[in-house]
Amino acid sequence: MTQNNLGRAYIDLPSGDRAANLQKAIVALEGALRVRTEKDFPIDWAVSENNLDLAYFYSTVEGLMENLQSAKPCFEAALRVWTESGFPEEHRSVVAHLDRVEQALRLHSSE
Question: What pLDDT does 62 receive?
Fold first, then answer.
């Protein structure tokens, strides 16, 4: 839980170097996902996956396309747990982010 919360705090941190904060968020969230597995902690895992998606989505350190490509499978993974019937609000939020990622990927692949 601590690694997830740390990652989320770095995503939301309003000060400092935004790119560095997002890289720290990615490291923390990847650490959280080594413990929060889909099998053992599905809801917590989905939360950490979603947060990792957001960190990749907002990050520009390694390039926009690479980050969008990294974010897409994370969003899709979170949807395995956050189903429309079981978690409608979370599902809608993740689907909206996934749609933005897919639109951005389409836009940049046509350039």
Answer: 60
